Amino acid sequence: xxxxxxxxxxxxxxxxxxxxxxxxxxxxxxxxxLEDVAKERFPKTVLALSQxxxxxxxxxxxxxxxxxxxxxxxxxxxxxxRSLLPVQLPLDLMINERYVEKEERLEHFEETxxxxxxxxxxxxxxxxxxxxxxxxxxxxxxxxxxxxxxxLPAGKDWVVVSEDDFEKESSAEKDSEKLDPRxxxxxxxxxx
Length: 192
Description:
Pfam families: YceD. The structure is a single chain. The chain is an alpha+beta fold. The chain contains six helices and ten strands, in the order E-H-E-H-E-E-E-E-E-E-H-H-E-E-H-H. Strands 2, 3, 4, 5, 6 and 7 form a six-stranded mixed beta sheet that branches. Strands 1-8 form a two-stranded antiparallel sheet. Strands 9-10 form a two-stranded antiparallel ribbon.
């Protein structure tokens, strides 16, 4: 394994470094800390972020694109989507991204492909890792107790209802709002 930026605060690779790896990719395994950056960029979402182990490769493709492939392992603490209590989630994700030098090249890729513009001739691994972590978070995050219970938060003059209960309530309201059949002819009268 080759590690170029072990002592740097930010894990970045310059394009000129990567260009040397046409035949064989630049491999690395680093432990990085992104907690401060994560809390600064996502203050309402990230409560804590463990040290992350990032293992991967960076290479230069025949099309002169930078290819970044990595796995990220660690833990993140985020608020429950129901009660805002802290919930720790394991992180184990794969990143497969392509970076192009010219913006026009982005048009050659499908929307589902991870292709980005290489900014300032640098691949910022920290930013890529953090963006991928945030994109991987589930929409509904619950504590273990919340997963086991059907109780939803409530307060003075408000209550949280599940989607199923909301749909049942909505359909019941629609049924009660149906027009009295004796008045149906009046409804047709106003259509003319």
